[in-house]
Amino acid sequence: MKKSSAVTTPTFLFLCLLLLLPLLARSNDDLIDKICQATPFCDLCEASLRPLSPSPSDPKSLASAMANVVLGNLTDTLGYIQSLIKHTHEPAAERALAQCAELYRPVVKFNIPQAIDAMRRGQFGFATYVLGDAEKQTDSCQKGINSTGANDESAVAITARNKQVKNLCDVAISVLKSLMNGR
Ligand SMILES: *[C@@H]1O[C@H](CO)[C@@H](O)[C@H](O)[C@H]1NC(C)=O
Ligand SMILES: *[C@@H]1O[C@H](CO)[C@@H](O)[C@H](O)[C@H]1NC(C)=O
């Protein structure tokens, strides 16, 4: 039994610290968990916020980061739509695509960047409104795509992207609501 006293106090403290380190490193993750679990698409929320480096460490940076993910995806979708317009020769499809591009351009260029700016000044209500509006634009775009009756590869791809952007907007709005409710 004498052997156990060979573990000196400094060694013991060091071992305790080693055990604590992973817990300390996880505190950001726990904030992400807590915030994401309150959103309607927890997996999407986690997939959006986990890979970020440096990891956002407070609710306000999480909300900004989420709005940036929406902006990234919508920018990407707009680029995809614009590339399709160049290669489409079917008038109905071309009209639907052009309408989507028109809907998305101001949202990508002005509205969401403005919302991200407003969040820095604490105007979370305005940011929530803008993201809700962006979500409505994805519905309008999708209606147009649906009305062409097209079910080819590009229609399927746009539908998937629209859905992703819509869900990301839902997540971002929910993160903003958590922030506004001080949770
Ligand atoms: C779109 O959202 C997904 C899921 O959050 C993310 O992993 C991806 O990086 C985003 N894409 C762009 C271009 O921002
Ligand atoms: C578009 O069509 C899909 C199924 O084809 C449907 O689930 C979706 O609700 C429609 N979207 C809109 C905005 O009309």
Automatic annotation (TrEMBL):
Give the signal sequence positions.
Answer: 1-27
Instruction: Give start and end of each Pectinesterase inhibitor domain.
Output: 27-175
Look up keyword Disulfide bond and say if it applies. yes
Superkingdom in the source lineage: Eukaryota
Q: Does the keyword field hold Signal?
A: yes
Recite the UniProt keywords alphabetically. Disulfide bond, Signal
An example of a GO molecular function for this protein is: enzyme inhibitor activity
Give the matching InterPro entries. C/VIF1 (IPR034087), Invertase/methylesterase_inhib (IPR035513), PCW_Enzyme_Inhibitor (IPR052421), Pectinesterase_inhib_dom (IPR006501)
Concerning CDD domains, the annotation shows: CIF_like
Q: Which PANTHER family match?
A: PECTINESTERASE INHIBITOR 5-RELATED, PECTINESTERASE INHIBITOR-LIKE
Record family assignment: Belongs to the PMEI family.
This protein is called: Pectinesterase inhibitor domain-containing protein
